[in-house]
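TICKET: design request
STATUS: open
ATTACHED STRUCTURE:
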């Protein structure tokens, strides 16, 4: 290969490398822009976007929902949540374990999970909620709940099936259920939450158990609050 041809080849290679670098940077910018837009949407439904509201005073039925804790507990905490919501994952990771240790396991409260998937910004949340209900039917809602929040970016149907396998669910029954058997439960929770004025996740209601499948709700918190915020409400109610 003569010198002229070699220089042309080297120049062509250099141009290709530069163009490849530019294309890669452009893709990074597009991905960054998408992430920023996603964060903006999240902030619109974050606690900071919510205005203070008067204390609630109504009864809520909890029969059929996933419940953790002893039946004789005086207080009940009801969480409306979304498996794709980062604030909900933060709560599950930071505050819920402390609530479990200090209040649920000690018999002071029962903890109830209700579904409120924000499908417009979390398109995988509905099916993840259905999958959690399918796990509940096999008595393993809470292990599945913990796994979904631990692997929040893995919520497509194949991943949900893998999560079910990882916690030992009956695969055939789970996959059959995932074809729509639990959709009505998730939709019913969503409709009730909408009627209650919920617009952000997680949203928590605190109330006194009525021993008839209902809870008299008297307090409300919105957002991934620190453990101290829950402790303050619960201690005040326990007194």
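STATUS: resolved
RESOLUTION: sequence designed for all positions
ATTACHED SEQUENCE:
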């Amino acid at each position: 290969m003569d010198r002229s041809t070699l220089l042309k080849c080297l120049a062509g290679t250099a141009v290709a490398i530069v163009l490849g670098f530019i294309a890669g940077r452009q893709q990074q910018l597009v991905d960054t822009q998408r992430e920023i837009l996603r964060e903006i949407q999240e902030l619109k439904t974050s606690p900071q976007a919510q205005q203070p509201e008067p204390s609630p005073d109504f009864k809520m039925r909890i029969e059929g929902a996933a419940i953790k804790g002893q039946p004789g507990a005086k207080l009940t905490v009801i969480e409306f949540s979304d498996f794709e919501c980062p604030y909900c994952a933060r709560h599950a990771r930071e505050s819920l374990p402390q609530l479990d240790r200090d209040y649920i396991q000690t018999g002071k409260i029962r903890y109830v999970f209700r579904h409120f998937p924000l499908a417009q910004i979390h398109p995988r949340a509905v099916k993840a909620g259905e999958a959690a209900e399918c796990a509940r039917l096999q008595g393993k809602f809470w292990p599945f709940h913990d796994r979904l929040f631990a692997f929040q970016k893995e919520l497509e149907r194949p991943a949900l099936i893998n999560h079910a396998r990882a916690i030992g669910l009956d695969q055939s029954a789970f996959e059959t259920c995932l074809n729509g058997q639990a959709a009505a439960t998730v939709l019913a929770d969503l409709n009730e939450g909408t009627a209650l004025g919920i617009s952000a996740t997680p949203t928590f209601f605190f109330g006194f158990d009525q021993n008839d499948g209902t809870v008299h709700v008297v307090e409300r918190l919105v957002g991934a609050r620190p453990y101290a915020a829950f402790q303050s409400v619960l201690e005040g109610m326990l007194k």
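CLOSING REMARK: Residues 44-50 have pLDDT under 50 and may be disordered. The chain has nine helices and six strands.
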